[in-house]
Structure formats: structure tokens, C-alpha cells
Amino acid sequence: MSGCTVSLSEALADLSATVVAFLAAAARTGGQWKIPRAPGKWSPSQVAEHVARIMEESAKVAAGSPSKFPTIPIFLRPVVRLIVFRRIIRRKSFLKMKALEPFQPEMGVGSPSEAMTRLQATLAQFDSACRAREATGRKVDSTIFGAVSVADFARFQELHVRHHLQQLPGEE
């Protein structure tokens, strides 16, 4: 059963639009680009790098390649899919979670224009991997959530980017 009520093309278009909004917000950060918004929080530069890393590794997952995401035991994946993945898709809102270590950037890219280049490249990889997966008629096999529809996987990514868009200055 799919929790997504949109097609893959619609989910990818929404992801693309959210990345464009994210990049526009990043461009408006000015002198705040490398300044954390609060003690213990990431700078806009680090947020952009985190988003790029997640999308890059998610493209690998969609392509069926090894990624830096952890491997949860198979018997737990349906539970995690229900409690985390489906809940996020259903609520259309990301949960407050701590990023896994490979996705916690010490530093981000040097400028918003570098973030634009990096995020556009990772978005293209993700889009291509999702479309190729959809063409096979197979679901995405996540090492965390198990098998999920490609459209739901793309929607999940869009919700992740939207969650981090809210962390950029002026976007609260």
C-alpha cells in the first residue's frame, strides 16, 4: 500500500521546487552563511551540505547501490517503515530526529553558489535514479525502511528538504 497520492513525476517536481526554494533562501543568507543560528545548531552552509549528503546517498539507495545509511535488521524494517516513514508521509512533515554521523557536516560548502552547484547535481542524480527505478517496476529497497514505492521515497526526500528549508534564516 502506497501512502503517496501523487505520481513519481509530481513528487520529483515538488522536490525540485523545494530545492529551488531552499537555494533561494540560501542565497539570501548573506553574511550569515557560515554562522550557526544558535549554539549547537548548524550554519546555513552546514544545513546545505547535510541536505546534499542525504540526497546523494538516497540516490544510491534508489539505484540499488551501497550507501552510508545504516542497515537495520530486516525484521525491524516494517516497524520503522510504519512508525517513521509512513508517519512522515502521512503527516507531510518531518519528525525531529538527530542526523546520523555520516550526515553531520563539520563544515559546509564555501558559498551559496557552491551549494547551488552541489544541490543541483545531487538532485539530478536522485531524479535519474528514481526514474530508472520506476522504469523497472520495482520499489526502492531501503536498508532502514525496507521496500517503499519510488514516489513515496521521492516525497520523503522533498519533506526532508522542506524541513531543513525552515532552518535557514528568515524561513522559520
**Overall pLDDT score:** 92
Listing every helix as H and every strand as E from the N terminus to the C terminus, the arrangement reads: HHHHEEH
Strand residue content: under 5%
Count the helices. How many?
5
Description:
With 172 residues, the chain is mainly α. The chain is built from 5 helices and 2 strands; from the N terminus they run ααααββα. The chain has helices spanning 8-27, 44-63, 77-91, 112-136, 150-165, and strands spanning 140-142, 146-148. Strands 1-2 form a two-stranded antiparallel sheet. The mean pLDDT is 92.
List descriptors.
172 residues, 2 strands, mainly alpha, single chain, two-stranded antiparallel sheet
Entry summary:
This protein has 172 residues and is mostly helical. The protein has helices spanning 8-27, 44-63, 77-91, 112-136, 150-165; strands at 140-142, 146-148.
Note the topology.
Blueprint lengths: L7 H20 L16 H20 L13 H15 L20 H25 L3 E3 L3 E3 L1 H16 L7
Antiparallel strand pairs: 1-2
